[in-house]
Specification:
The chain is mainly α and 116 residues long. The protein is 89% helix and 0% strand. The chain has 5 helices and no strands.
Length: 116
């Protein structure tokens, strides 16, 4: 019984290691192809990637406010839940992009001028 338990742990470790190495190699190949110009990333995905940290910072407060507002106004009763979910996700991502454009870029420029 103990041998079977430990062999499962070893097998799980090798599987996780194998998936990790394979994922690393795929990302490494894609980055190399992008640098060589063989693969181009669409502009919308580049902008979304640029503002990903701002989206991360802003999404939780925006989602929280919108959920509380929809509960208080009982919007979920009159609107389909999928539509409300889409609206909340879209608004939180859009708010993060706006935050990136208006705040994060300006702060980065100011820090670079101040530090360098």
């Amino acid at each position: 019984m103990a041998t079977f338990f430990f062999s499962d742990i070893k097998m799980g470790l090798w599987l996780e290691l194998g998936y990790g190495v394979a994922t690393f190699l795929m990302i490494w190949a894609f980055v190399g192809w992008e640098r060589d110009g063989r693969v181009t990333v669409p502009l919308i995905l580049q902008k979304l990637g640029d503002s990903s940290y701002a989206i991360y910072l802003v999404h939780l407060p925006v989602v929280s406010v919108l959920c509380k507002l929809s509960a208080k106004l009982k919007i979920f009763v009159s609107i389909d839940s999928y539509l409300l979910y889409f609206f909340i996700v879209f608004t939180s991502v859009f708010s993060g992009i706006i935050f990136h454009i208006t705040v994060e870029k300006n702060v980065n420029v100011a820090i670079r001028k101040w530090c360098f």
